[in-house]
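Reply to dn_fold:

You asked what the input looked like. This is it:
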Amino acid sequence: MEKIILFDGECNFCDRSVQFILKRDDEALFRFASLQGDAGQKLLQQYDVPADTDSFIFIDGNQCHDRSSAALNVFRHLSGGWKLLYGLIIVPKPIRDVFYNILAKNRYKWFGKKESCTLPSPDTRKRFLD
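and this is what came back:
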């Protein structure tokens, strides 16, 4: 089952999150696409997600998760103790998303914004969708 992460390619925090995931994805389960790119826009359309969304999106087979649910479902697949964070899924989504939304709303102010996506290294490039 394909696992795809859609992220904001202009956000420094999001870029660092992708690098964090790559280092802890021992089985190379995840593929990546920026929300701003053609592949990301096609996937948003395919899963009926508004094209102007700026949320972290995780597509797991035929399921599409957003915001805190996306992040927690990604943690579930990472190596090490990070899997334990998935236990927070028991907190109701509206409560989890309050905290997610605070981070999302302030991510450019706190972490900065890029002009374009970071180019992946040649060995990870095949995991990024065009």
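Residues 3-116 form one domain.
Hope that clears it up.
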